[in-house]
Amino acid sequence: MMKMDCLIVGAGQAGLSLAAILTAKNINVCILERETRIGDVWRRRPDNMLLFTSRGMTQLHGLPFPGIEDGYPDKNEVADYLERYASHHNLTIHTQTEVVEVKHDKNGYSVKTKDGKVFNALCLVNATGANQLADIPVLSGQLSADIQQIGADKYQEPKQIKAGSRVAVVGDGASGRQIAKDLAATAKVTLFCGSSRPLLHNRIMGKDIFWWLSKSGLLFANYYSLVGKIMRRRNPIPCGELKNHRLAAFGIKIANRLVDIKDNNLCDLSGNQYEVDTVIWCLGYKDNTVWLTLPGAADANGFVCKNGHEEGGKTPYPGLFIVGRKWLSSRGSELMLGAYKDTSRVAKWVENYLKDHVSLK
């Protein structure tokens, strides 16, 4: 049995950022990470993917991102940077350690891992991230076994799909548009689109759009502010180079919203039917809540927590906090650029909570 003041589940950008702050405060903190290496979630992302944020906008506090500041990093650069960040701050991390059960009592939190280890801590922080499980609709069950189905989190390269296949990419967010373009040269691709939303260009007047969003304050507009509400409702994404007419130029068919599946044919809202060999589900992500076994800590919508600049990250349980979620306090919450604003706030809560409770050291 291992004891510490604060236990963090998840060694992604938010977990690492928080651990670095707490370590600097001489707080006994440890991270549990289920992957073999820090950054492995990034290493499994599509091979041809580049981030939408430039290197200058893709870094955590205390360590610059290497390379040309105005260029866009690939997945391996990000994975290696996170690994380097952990080493730079000398963080205590247990990899290949998957949490399967959490209990809470007057003494704090007891966390059990898949290999039978038990960690005890006064504070527990959920830093498992914003993109955990691809959201696969119930409708997918209407497809027969001979139709290949892939979640956005499992797609890496065109070689996963037989050349010349009829591929339906369902979902026209950032992942869906990137994957559709990636497959256009080797497959017959149809992109099923949902509600219309703004598709912004990555660069405006020679600058990364996230530079403008940061400087203008829009990126950090409070969840509850008028600007925050408008941004959440409109949900713009930096895919201006992948608008429908540009995708069509690559031979990609644009379909309306998927509404039904009949005899393995995908039916859109306009009444069109499409025969497919492969379906790639790009409908967003949901929380993997199975490990957090505390009553009321999660519901049908995922982990339960408060939002906003003042209380974003607080949960129904004392000493239990969340970092790294979409719109935890602002649009920037899920980005490396915005991690510090949330993790520094939560670090203060952890520090204050520990001052009021007996240490488990």
From TrEMBL:
Keyword Cell membrane in annotation: no
InterPro entries assigned to the protein according to its UniProt record, in alphabetical order: Auxin_biosynth/cation_transpt (IPR050982), FAD/NAD-bd_sf (IPR036188)
Top-level taxonomic group: Bacteria
Transmembrane segments: none
GO molecular function per UniProt: flavin adenine dinucleotide binding; monooxygenase activity
Pfam families: Pyr_redox_3 (PF13738)
Keywords from the UniProt entry: Oxidoreductase
PANTHER family membership: FLAVIN-BINDING MONOOXYGENASE-LIKE PROTEIN (AFU_ORTHOLOGUE AFUA_4G09220) (PTHR43539), FLAVIN-CONTAINING MONOOXYGENASE (PTHR43539:SF78)
Protein name: Potassium uptake trka-like protein
